[in-house]
Amino acid sequence: MARTETSTHCPYCALQCGMKLRPVTDGGVVEVVERTGFPVNRGALCGKGRTAPAVLASGVRLTGPLVRDAGGELAPASWDEALGRVADGLRGTRAEHGADAVGVFGGGGLTNEKAYALGKFARVVLGTSQIDYNGRFCMSSAAAAHQRAFGLDRGLPFPLEDIPRTGCVILVGSNLAETMPPALRYLTELRENGGRLIVVDPRRTRTAEQADLHLAPRPGTDLALALGMLHLVVAEGRVDEEFVRTRTNGWDEARASAMAHWPELVERLTGVSVPRLREAVEMFCGAEDGMVLTARGPEQQAKGTDTVGAWINFCLATGRAGRPLSGYGCLTGQGNGQGGREHGQKADQLPGYRKLTDPAARRHVAGVWGVDPDSLPGPGRSAYELLDALGRDVRSLLVMGSNPVVSAPHAGHVEERLRSLDFLAVADVVLSETAELADVVLPVTQWAEESGTTTSLEGRVLLRQRAVTPPPGVRSDLEVLHALAGLLGHGKGFPADPEEVFDELRRASAGGPADYAGITYARIAAEDGVFWPCPDEDHAGTPRLFLERFATDDGRARFVPVTHRAAAEETDAEYPVVLTTGRVVSQYQSGAQTRRVAELNAAAPGPFVELHPRLAERIGVAEGEDVAVTSRRGRAVAPARITVGIRQDTVFMPFHWPGAGRANSLTNPALDPVSRMPEFKVCAVRVEAAG
Ligand code: SF4
């Protein structure tokens, strides 16, 4: 047997680590081999990436379609029957209730080709405006703040390799050591080079332990923290006046709002002392250059856009943006969170990161699609609003690559809405908790069984290459959309070949903010990825944005004045503790795949409630004993994990599990007014011994 190795990328997070897959049997079993030449991870992988081939095994995945039978059970069916049922379900709803009664829910793990095809399928075949995706729950606040300030959203406007060479990094609400461990080396190298690291996190995480300075604000107050630091920048004469004058607009209003946030007020709001604030400002401004990197902590809030905006204002005022080795960046979470939002599965966007409300954008994309621009629907509901409308305005739903029963906020309510649908179809690799509720389950191929591109958190477009033959009973998502489009009267325009779809995506994105026109499969493979924008095949790609000008009409960055406001739900006598949620190293997102990998399950077998010893003593629980956490929306029970590394007024739960320990049973679906991001990171709870 030939042992040909295939270069590809991990199926999980936005770091998109390079790896090689090597066949170990003739039956399609592969093992992961180091790919040291890929610059981002240089061969390093976390346990999730290393064990990813386990999900290819037949025992843990779906290998044939399932259709709900007359007895209400999911039963095996042929592809013809399953696809026919889906087409009938979607067609029937549209005929009875109108096109917008059909919804589509996509995922940030789908390749660019799938995200593109899904958006086109929704708008051209179904004619519905009701499409959004779970990436809305990931980095949408950072995307909105990026757009607002810089006129363009790319998670990192510079490559990761710049991080070790800057002078100081403020890492806000990111636990890299657990979410993307190979990226930790960039921070280690930063410190080895003499750079400083400030971590802002209510928990003393493994990442915070690496920091020169750890600030632990009360959850939901990092907007105030950023304003307090900006206040000190102004008060201490550390504003980069020339940068502000020549490269920005709107400083006077932003300065006025920062000056209203006195350090003493900020200390009261955040719990971070004034001397610690001063130390942070001194450390950041004392370095020649610097970066602020945010992740889900500040972003997953009902004021996430303004919170990120406050950190961007801080960067602009100190002249740490639009210059080499300086800037603001977002550490996107999902594998294709970046590309997933660029190519049309987001409620308000067309491919190439074009706005659905822009007449020129509609004309361009409609031209590529061969349809009348006026036939394209307008923007639809955001992800949570779409889920909340299920069974009411939206009567049928097609889910592709998402598991909202575990990952959506107020998950008990979302589960109830899903159950109330007239028709639910789910395309997935495994029988997820959402697929369990479906009328039809379509088993699809996964990363190693198909080719396709993703766009990493750096804006680097990468190629995942097919390394194994999929089992006979499964089809790719593109084949599913091709077949459904045909059954619904669109025999052309939905090719199943990924490269053909990508070539159309290139044309659709040409001239747009996220321009992929010059990126080809061959170039990606030859160059280890190409950074967008890349308008033609002679263009080298753009690793660093904004060095000459920002992407606004006048080329200047925009300060946006923001003010502190309380969390959507404050603590009170009945719910006196703050719950914040997050991730652990051995599980990924809703856990649908990683919970099926024995090694990962052994390392992280279930949820837990992290709490401070004083709080544990107050409620009378010892390490490992069950804690009941109750919010206004639900209750979850999980064993106590007691640590001094968390504030006494806060508990933490990871969200990867369904059932009694489902953290998202508790979370608050209050939405950010700009990004429509739910407030995953802050809600008021009561904690008690569960006994
Ligand atoms: Fe995969 Fe992310 Fe782990 Fe890299 S860090 S191996 S991309 S899950």
From TrEMBL:
Domain 4Fe-4S Mo/W bis-MGD-type, first and last residues per copy: 3-60
Cited Gene3D superfamilies: 2.40.40.20, 3.40.50.740, ADC-like domains (2.20.25.90), Dimethylsulfoxide Reductase, domain 2 (3.40.228.10)
Record keywords, A-Z: 4Fe-4S, Iron, Iron-sulfur, Metal-binding
SUPFAM superfamilies: ADC-like, Formate dehydrogenase/DMSO reductase, domains 1-3
Designated name of the protein: Molybdopterin oxidoreductase family protein
Organism: [Kitasatospora] papulosa
